[in-house]
Structures are given as C-alpha cells and as structure tokens.
Design brief:
This protein is α+β, with helices and mostly antiparallel strands. It is 29% helix and 24% strand. Among the domains are: 2-86 and 175-199 and 450-477, no CATH class; 203-315, Rossmann fold (3-Layer(aba) Sandwich); 350-413, Dna Ligase, domain 1 (2-Layer Sandwich), CATH 3.30.1490. The chain has a five-stranded mixed sheet with strand order 5-25-24-21-20. α2 crosses α6 (175-188) and α3 crosses α12 (332-340). This is Circularly permuted type 2 ATP-grasp protein.
Length: 480
C-alpha cells in the first residue's frame, strides 16, 4: 500500500492521519495498520464498490448552474477522516457555547436589541442584513429556541488549530451524506468497524425527531410532524425525502398545506389533518407569501399568522438567516463575551470587514493574499481566492467591493488541513473542512459525533463544496 511512502508534507500542511512520512497519528494507527494489508487494486475496488452503492441509494445533488439539470452522485473517498476523543470533546464544548450565544443573539435582536444599544454590534449591520426580517420582531418560538438545527463549518490550519469558518442556521444540509457514507463504509469494510471504537452516527434521525417533537405543546399526545421541501428540483431534495422517511413523518410541499380554522392543515386522501411541527427546508422569505415574498409558490399563505399564534412550531424559526450573514459572523466572539461572559472556546478566522474604511483599504491592497467572500452567498459562489485568481479577476472583485462594501468580508488564506485521498491509482493529500450538526432542544444541546467532511478533490484547491467539484469522506470520532 502506498501509505508507507505517503508524504504528508508536514512542514507545510497539517495532515489529519500522519505526523510525518511513515509516522501515523496515534488515533489513526489501527486504521492504517489494517489498510497496509490491502494492495492498491483492493483499495480501488472497495472505493468503486462504495461509489456504486451510493449511486444505487440515490444519494445525489443538483448543481443550479448546470443547465442540463443532471443529478450527480457526491464523489466519495474511501479513506476516512479520524478525530480523537479528546479533540471531539473540546469541539463539542465549543460548539455548544457558540450555539447558545447565537440563540441568545437572535432572541435579542428580534426583541430589545440590547447588544445593539450597548454598542457591541452596529445597528446598521443588523438593519442591512438581508436575513434580518422585521416581520419576525416580537416572535416567541416554542421553548425559546430559534436555531434548532445548525451546521457549523470548521477548518484546521497548518498548525492543527481549529477555526469556525461559518455558521449555517437557516436550512443546513448535508446530514444525509453523513449517514449514507457511514452505511456504505460499514457494508464495504465491515471488519474495520469491529476493531475500532468508532462513535455511531445512524441515530441522528431519532435525535432530530425527538428535538422536533419537543417543540409541540405538551398537551398533544401524538403531535404530527412534517418536513416541508421546495420540491424535487431542489438541490437537497434527496436529503429532505431521506430524513422524512427515516423519521417516519410526511414529506410535504407548500401546495400540500393550507391554513384552515386558524391551524396549519395537511391535505390527505382522508381529508385535512393538522400539522403541529414543521421542519422546513424552505428559505425564510419563501415561507409565507402574505408575510414575505408575495411571488413565492413554495410556502403557505397565512403560515406566519398561525406561527405567531403558537398553533404550529417551525424549525428553524424564521429570521435565523441573519446569523448566516458573514459580516454578522465576525461579531460572534463578541456575542459569546456579551451574553455568556465567557471567552470563546472556538476561534473565528480573522476577518476584515469591507464596510469599515481601514479594513477595506487593506483588502483592496492585498487581494492577492486574501479570500474574499460575499456576505450571503453559499456553495462556494461569490468568492475570490486571491492567491489563485488572475489579475483580471482581482480587479473585477475590487470593483464589486467598492460598489457594495457591506456585502464583502475578507480573510487570510488558511492552509487547510489535509487527509490522504485516493486519486485514481495513487494516494495524495487533499484539503478538507468539517460540518458538525447541532440540535438545540431548549433544555439541552446535542452535537452529533463527527459530521460531514468535505474534501477538495482538485489538487491544490481549497474549495470543498460539492457544487465546485468537492467530495466527501466518512468522519470517524473515536470513543473515549
């Protein structure tokens, strides 16, 4: 196996499995000892078997920029990413702290806005955020929780230091890949799971269902839960249907729902049936054409009125998108200090705010060294990696920043950690990030072990998004 000669380039990168050539990290030793018993052809066969299994399972996604509208299988790499029990316990604490502060922030800005009055977050940043929705002011979500399901993107730098790259609080996707990747790995390589103490991930749907049922009024003995999807053309439709099936609840579109007698009702072959909890995978402004976008055909007219009256629970609560804003992200460490009186456990990536003149001047003078991101884009879109961009591309982005400085942030180009990855018939290091999933029930916060490891399959690329050619790996969190 090529692992004996694999060069992690430890002077330049932090490798998740190797400290140096021929020297695996302690947590990776059992895996690598087992892999050394395979020849390259066997590993490739396992890799191909896993990819075929994912295709047969229907684990696909759509790329909106693809004019052919072809569903694609997310590329999967057979070599997993391993996280030690000690690392994971520390990450878990940091994620719980961060989500607690973000929830308090959301509740605050839709009520008294004390953090703004005390000068910790500028009022203009909140008011200009596309995700800040004035119709949500004064809302009282069930159990006081706004962000029930969160996907937080983490990266490691060349020194192995963890950073939060961004927060995803509206409709974070990707958990279905976590579950199906593990399912395929266990069927393809069953023996390794007998020899390693790896934390399970297949109980996520039961944790999610428990969190959703927790939102229903306690007097309801058998509340009805449904998953609201935009429909089959949405890029994450596989995940919507998968989660509904795994939880044993209905998958509905806006056209399947109606407000009657002050309640949200689902159309069935036996008549209308009341829906008590809606896990919505539709963006905020498409939820209710009477409250938000009048041209929306994806939502339900009158839904927000029912929600305000406390007759239906929504997860996540409308309005959470303001915390997805990459400019607001820069203030999360201050939120933690303000609301919790604690120092942040997990650090942000150092961030330059282009709406501030001093930061903007620095960014414009150093575009060749920075990563520039649009404040409300996702999927790797609206981004400039200055070290890999042409002079023309940098000039175009400079004009965008000058025209709308509020819409851009910039960060130093982190040298993301790498994991050995099977590239055709050889093993090479590829950059990765990690998206753990966090469920906030009100009385407790649950962090699902591991998460989605996304890998940039193109050599030298730092962009891990599936829409930009990235793939995924199984993430193994070892038990204490």
């Amino acid at each position: 196996m090529q692992l004996e000669t694999y060069d992690p380039e430890s002077a330049t990168y932090y490798d998740e499995l190797f400290e140096a050539v021929g020297k695996p990290r302690p947590a990776a030793v059992p895996l690598l000892e087992w892999m050394q018993g395979l020849n390259p052809k066997e590993l490739q066969q396992h890799h191909q078997t896993a990819q075929i299994a994912l295709f047969k399972l229907g684990v696909t996604f759509n790329v909106y920029s693809d004019t052919q509208g072809v569903e694609r299988v997310l590329p999967f790499d057979i070599i997993p990413r391993i996280i030690s029990a000690e690392d994971w316990q520390w990450l878990e604490q940091g994620l719980k702290q961060r989500i607690t502060a973000l929830n308090l922030f959301l509740n605050d800005i839709y009520h008294d806005q004390k953090i703004v009055q005390d000068g910790k977050v500028p009022a203009e940043i909140i008011q200009s955020a596309p995700g800040f929705l004035p119709p949500c002011q004064g809302l009282e979500p069930p159990t006081g929780v706004w962000c029930h399901i969160t996907g937080t993107d983490l990266v490691r730098d060349r020194n192995g230091q963890w950073y939060v790259l961004e927060d995803n609080l509206r409709v974070p996707s990707g958990i279905s890949y976590v579950l199906e990747n593990r399912r395929v790995m266990k069927s393809t390589l069953p023996k390794i799971f007998q020899n390693l103490a790896i934390q399970p991930v297949d109980d996520y749907p039961s944790h999610l269902l428990e969190a959703l049922l927790n939102l229903a009024p306690p007097y309801l003995q058998t509340p009805t839960v449904a998953v609201l999807t935009p429909g089959i053309y949405n890029s994450a439709y596989f995940e919507h249907s998968f989660l509904a099936q795994q939880m044993g609840v209905e998958l509905v579109e806006g056209r399947d729902l109606v407000v009657v007698d002050g309640y949200l009702q689902m159309k069935t072959t036996k008549g209308l049936r009341r829906v008590d909890v809606l896990y919505r995978r539709v963006d905020d402004t498409f939820l209710d054409p009477l409250t938000f976008r009048p041209d929306s055909l994806l939502g339900v007219p009158g839904l927000m009125e029912v929600y305000r009256a406390g007759r239906v629970a929504l997860a996540n609560a409308p309005g959470t998108g303001v915390a997805d804003d990459k400019v607001v992200y820069a203030y999360v460490p201050e939120m933690i200090r303000y609301y919790l009186n604690e120092d942040p456990i997990l650090a942000n990536v150092p961030t330059y705010l282009c709406w501030q003149e001093k930061d903007r001047d620095y960014v414009l003078q150093n575009l060749d060294k920075l990563v520039v991101k649009a404040a409300n884009e996702a999927g790797g879109y609206g981004m400039l990696v200055g070290t890999q961009a042409s002079q023309t591309e940098r000039e175009i982005f400079a004009k965008k920043i000058e025209a709308n400085p509020r819409n851009y942030i910039a960060q130093p180009t982190l040298c993301l950690s790498r994991v050995p990855t099977l590239i055709e018939d050889r093993i090479e290091g590829r950059h990765v990030d990690l998206r753990p999933y966090i469920l906030h029930r009100g009385d407790e916060i649950y962090v699902h072990p591991g998460g989605l490891t996304r890998v940039a399959l193109r050599k030298g690329s730092l962009v891990v998004n599936s829409s930009q050619g990235g793939g995924s790996k199984d993430t193994w969190v070892l038990t204490p």
